[in-house]
Structure formats: structure tokens, C-alpha cells
Write a structure and sequence with these properties.
By secondary structure, the protein is mostly helical. The protein has a domain of 57 residues. The chain contains four helices and no strands.
Length: 141
Amino acid sequence: MFFGIDMEKIVIILVVAALLLGPEKLPRYAELLAKFTVRARDWLNGARSRVKDEMGEDFDDIEWRKLDPRQYDPRRIIRDALLDDTPSPPARASAIAPAAVAAPAAAAAATTAAATSAPSTAPATLVRDPDAPVPFDSEAT
């Protein structure tokens, strides 16, 4: 296989090109194709040598198959993430802070009411009212 094309398809393309170009133009186009192939190979070798010079001695140690973008299947990535058994980190207090900023009077009243009522062993958590508008900071953008 040559770039994902079967050899039979290449032969068919060459036969059709030979028929379309004719015997007069075919040698000239074959020569142009050969020159283009040599130039492309020289360009690729030059690019490879420049990358090797810039990367240093570690260039040969890189496992290029691991960097192949075709291996990044979104389904596999999601499946691996869902099957990961590591516990997720607990929510930080800063993630809840915008709700407290949106309604500081209500938060203060709830804290005062909770402090005056019977003592509770569970920590107090702030929950944003789903019907309340989302807090917006015009200076953040």
C-alpha cells in the first residue's frame, strides 16, 4: 500500500494517464514526475535533518507511534476516563463563592440563623438557587 492506495489503483491511474497524454507527451511528464519526486524526497530529508538538529540527541529516542494522532479516539479517551478508579478531588470553596457574592445578605442571614439554632455536626454548604440569575461580573471580561 502506498499512502492508503492499493497497487492496482496506481496501475489503473498510470494506464489512464498514458492514454490521455499520448506517446508524445508521456516522456516529458514522466521526467517532470521524477524531478518532483527527487525534490520532494530531498525536502523531506532536509526537514528531518533540521528537526533532528533542533531536537538534539533525544530525537532518536522518541517513540513516534505514541504521537500518532490517529490513536486519539474520543470514545476510548472517554471510556478510559469513566473507568478510572481514582477519586475526584473534593469541590473547593472558591467554586461556591459566586453564590455567596450574588446574595451576601441572604448568606449572612442563613449563617446567623444556623448559628442561633441547634448545633449541627454537618458542615454548612452553600447551594445556589436554580431560579436565581447567574452572577455576572462585568469587569472580568
